[in-house]
Amino acid sequence: MKKIKVLNLYAGLGGNRKKWENCDVTAVEIDSKIAIIYARNFPNDTVLVGDAHKYLQEHFNEFDFIWSSPPCQSHSKMMKATRHSVAKYPDLTLYEEILLLHHFFKGKYVVENVRPYYKPLIQPTQTNGRHIFWSNFEFMAFDVPQPKGFIQKSNLEAKKMMMEWLGIFYDENIYYGNNHCPTQILRNCVHPDIGNHIFNAQFNK
Hints:
There is one protein chain. With 205 residues, this protein is α/β, with parallel strands linked by helices. Helices cover 27% and strands 18% of the residues. The chain is built from six helices and seven strands, in the order E-E-H-E-H-E-H-E-E-E-H-H-H. It has a seven-stranded mixed β-sheet with strand order 3-2-1-4-5-7-6. Strand 6 (126-128) and strand 7 (131-135) form a beta hairpin. The longest helix is centred in the middle third of the chain and has 12 residues, at 93-104. The radius of gyration is 16 Å and the shape is globular. The two termini are 17 Å apart.
């Protein structure tokens, strides 16, 4: 069977990608430290350090399947939590990518984000647990129970628990942006079983 060409944007640690098979993956991640861990776990993938949003616009027509997980922090319900004293604009590149893929991309695509604190500006295709998805193919809702204390725990013990949950392991302590929580980049992952469930659904008739 011919391998399908896959673009994995905002690749992070590669949770969504972990169980994909028979594919040739190009991953784009802006954080070089995170990209190093991804490349170590997926040595056969092409890993690029750079702007995923720009790369999508310039290269989308080179792939058969695209998965995009734009940063979720500005959309998350945590943005309205009491600990945040400064309101921020939602990052609307999320919707730019949905519109581009929907109207111009000829292959299959998935855009993933968290359930936002507002009504989504574009109706999602599917909601799975804490995730919402936009796609041009159908798949059944499928969720994986989160470890106890998923959001609150932020110590090294929690990091170990999250790595075991995802099946992704590394020794470094990598922090997302200015967040000094060692579990944040792990919480950003889509669980491998969910990623695989959705990836395989594109082949269903």
